[in-house]
Amino acid sequence: MKKRFQDKVALITGASSGIGEALARQLAAEGAGLCLFARRADRLQALQSELEASGAQVVVYAGDVTVPSDLEGAVALALERFGRLDLVVANAGIGVTSPFSRLTTEDYRHQFEVNFFGVLHTLFASLEALKASQGQAVLVGSVAGLAGTPGSSPYNASKFAVVGLAESLYYDLGKEGIAVTLVNPGFVESEIRLLDNRGARTGRGDPVPSWLVMPASKAASVILKAVYKKKAVVVVTFHGVVLSWLKRFCPALIRLLLRQGSYRKERKK
Questions:
Q1: Which of 68, 139, 181, 250 makes an SS bond possible with 166, Cβ 3.0 to 4.6 Å?
Q2: What is the tens place of the pLDDT at every residue in 201-246?
């Protein structure tokens, strides 16, 4: 079986869980060298040991995407170990949610520091390396960046910003020989919905019904197929495709459905 990413080198942020972790496993199986970036050093080291045991070449860097020097350090580590960088996946993200009246500007600032400026820091840190390799930048947005949803305005706004950024970078980075792929997942297996607005575990289960959640491994397969084909945009999950279609062609209907769903949820409380 052909390995689509044989001898390619990939940097993945948010690699310690969810989509990032699943992408790391599948890219390793496809022959890529990996630089894995996340805040949790223990999780990164455990993943590194697992992948190296299967023959993969992996380096890890524990850092925070809100700190530009951390990302610069990760890129330098990848170049030192592998001599090149072909693929950068800006995947790290958090979810700040609450009705607007319960939020502050600091909540929005915190959300954007990770989800939007974290993406920018990742891209600026890797730009020269991607120019040199004529590589590819993958930005993980969300279907929440295509349609607003009740009680999630900070998250929605940050993902709308990522979607807009990717749409422009498709042209700007394309001139530099760098392909851009925007990934818009729907509900995918992840820890993000198990955390509060500051990243601490809530102790509650996933509020999304399990039948609606796509396994991270399946999502990673869909993403890598699109990345290999250098698609400009890929929507992950069937419900994500439906939502994006409705938002584009029936915006009044999707607003009605989301409003009614929000009202029913409030009445149950």
A1: 139
A2: 665 666 777 888 999 999 999 999 999 999 999 999 999 999 999 9
The rounded percent of the chain whose pLDDT value lies above 70 is: 91
The token pair that represents 228 in the structure block: 């290999």
In the numeric block, the tokens 């993945």 are attached to 12
One of 61, 155, 228, 263 is an active-site residue; which one? 155
Residue 263 is among the residues annotated as catalytic for this protein: no
Question: Cα–Cα distance between 226 and 255 in angstroms, integer?
Answer: 29
8 CB burial (10 A radius; 0-12, 13-18, 19+): buried
> What is residue 119's three-state secondary structure?
helix
Alpha carbons 207 and 213: distance in angstroms, whole number = 10
Strands laid side by side in the 179-185 sheet: 58-62, 33-38, 9-13, 87-90, 136-140, 179-185, 233-236
Sequence-separated (6 or more) residues with CB below 8 Å from residue 152: 95, 97, 144
